[in-house]
Design brief:
Elements lengths: L10 H13 L4 H28 L13 H32 L7 H4 L4 H16 L1
Length: 132
């Protein structure tokens, strides 16, 4: 594994890291975003394991092991928020890697990229043309 591979990732986070870094080279900022996305993926697995344990028909005789409705609702809400955050991070990383270079190594601005940096470059170029 590459030297920059985060050592504390679980199985799902490790898989996400490997797949994302194999398909694109990332800027240092996007590497940080990817690391956080990997942690979110692992956290989602952990939250899912709690939900599955609570839903299991095999529970201890202890009444305290039964989840309360508010507990499970809070856990499900947190899972949804974490999933939304993960989707956003992965989308940002993919958008930037697609927008950074077009096939054949052409810059994205010439290839019609849709990233935030590409949009900023196009706005600046138009402003420059309008002034000149």
């Amino acid at each position: 594994m590459p030297a920059d591979f985060p050592p504390d990732l679980g199985p799902r986070g490790s898989r996400l890291w490997q797949e994302m870094t194999a398909s694109a080279s990332l800027t240092p900022a996007h590497s940080v975003l990817l690391e956080e996305a990997c942690r979110l993926a692992d956290r989602l697995d952990w939250l899912n394991s709690i939900v599955l344990r609570w839903m299991s028909p095999v529970n201890g005789d202890d009444e305290d092991s039964e989840p309360k409705s508010a507990d499970i609702q809070g856990l499900l809400a947190e899972s949804r928020q974490q999933a939304t955050a993960l989707r956003g991070l992965v989308a940002e990383i993919r958008q930037s890697s697609k927008g950074s270079a077009a096939p054949g190594g052409k810059p994205a601005a010439k290839a019609g990229g849709a990233g935030v940096a590409d949009l900023s470059a196009r706005i600046a170029a138009r402003r420059g043309k309008a002034k000149g």
